[in-house]
Amino acid sequence: MTKSNKISKNVVKQIAELARLKLDESDCDLFSKQMTNIISYISKLDEINTKDIKPLTNIIPYQENVMRNDIVKNSLKLEQSLKNSPEKDENYIKVPKIIRTK
Description:
Elements lengths: L8 H10 L6 H19 L34 H6 L4 E2 L2 E2 L9
Antiparallel strand pairs: 1-2
């Protein structure tokens, strides 16, 4: 394992902060080791000789579109939607702010 493959505790803390996870020091140690092992394992793919292997564009044979067609259906009227909302601002439902800024 090279030094560049090592996932530091600081990187784990940054990822946890982005994911809004609270980790203690022991969690950071554990995840640092686990993530380093995963990256090390994945980097072994670089050792495989793929010179004569054709790239795949799709591993599943072509299939027809299996999605249903979009169908326009009646929906709730604005008044009905707002009627059950605990808070509203004109024609909008107000929801609590969940993203904090630094």
